[in-house]
Design goal:
The complex is a heterodimer.
Chain A: E1 4-6, E2 10-13, E3 19-21, E4 23-25, E5 31-38, E6 42-49, E7 56-57, E8 65-70, E9 73-78, E10 87-94, E11 103-104, E12 108-112
Parallel strand pairs in A: 2-12
Antiparallel strand pairs in A: 1-4, 3-9, 5-6, 5-10, 6-7, 8-9, 10-11, 10-12
Chain B: E1 4-5, E2 10-14, E3 19-25, E4 32-38, E5 45-51, E6 56-58, E7 62-67, E8 72-77, E9 86-92, E10 101-102, E11 106-111
Parallel strand pairs in B: 2-11
Antiparallel strand pairs in B: 1-3, 3-8, 4-5, 4-9, 6-7, 7-8, 9-10, 9-11
The chains are: A mainly beta, B mainly beta.
Chain lengths: ~110, ~110
């Protein structure tokens, strides 16, 4: 089975801190994604990557950046955390272009105080 | 605008009954649709998908129906079990090869 691992289950940070969320997948998938999930809003795409060192903005990229130096790892960076970035963050991967079958990690609940 | 919506935010069913979760989509360019299940404390999990050249697809205890005329998608779960209690999301591909558009989710509660 595909395994997508997110480094932290819960994080508490202060406003203005730089925050790194790490995600690793073990199935050699080409595509990786970062979503945030908020009650009543479903999943919203922040950034995605379809290849190493490639990245594309999703629907809500403001305040975030990403890094994909290796195929298996996709990092989400909050340069200066704000309270409105308190959310559940979900990482996902998929095999290739056009594959809608995403494999999700268990999520990181980030609280920014 | 592009959106994926759900008619019922919460659905409560008796164990053993069939469940039907509905979803409306608005992007005519979408040709691929997926249902995901999210249990408490976990990430969403793929259940079943369907392409626009089909109107029905069956899996194990689940059936997805697609009505392109009215832009409607439904997930049917047969003989609903307590383990089916979760939030269910529909998603569509819009006009992208990479991105999915997710609905806001429907919570399914199974009464014993």
């Amino acid at each position: 089975d595909v395994k997508v691992t997110q480094s932290s289950r819960y994080l508490v940070k202060r406003t203005g801190e730089k925050v790194f969320l790490e995600c690793v997948q073990d199935m050699d998938h080409e595509n990786m994604f970062w979503y945030r999930q908020d009650p009543g809003l479903g999943l919203r795409l922040i950034y995605f990557s379809y290849d190493v060192k490639m990245k594309e903005k999703g629907d809500i990229p403001e305040g975030y950046s990403v890094s994909r130096e290796k195929k298996e790892r996709f990092s989400l960076i909050l340069e200066s955390a704000s309270t409105n970035q308190t959310s559940m963050y979900l990482c996902a991967s998929s095999r290739s272009k056009g594959s809608g079958k995403l494999f999700f990690g268990s999520g990181t609940q980030l609280s920014v105080l | 605008g592009e959106s994926v919506g759900l008619h019922l935010p919460t659905l409560s069913v008796q164990e053993g009954d069939n469940s039907i979760i509905n979803c409306a989509y608005s992007n005519s360019a979408s040709d691929y649709f997926i249902w995901y299940k999210q249990e408490s404390g976990k990430g969403p999990q793929f259940i079943i998908d369907i392409r626009s050249n089909m109107d029905k697809r069956q899996g194990q205890r689940v059936t997805v129906l697609l009505n392109k005329t009215v832009k409607h998608l439904s997930l049917q779960i047969a003989a609903t079990q307590p383990g089916d209690s979760a939030v269910y999301f529909c998603a569509e591909n819009g006009d992208s090869s990479y991105k999915l558009i997710f609905g806001s989710g429907t919570r399914l509660l199974v009464r014993p």
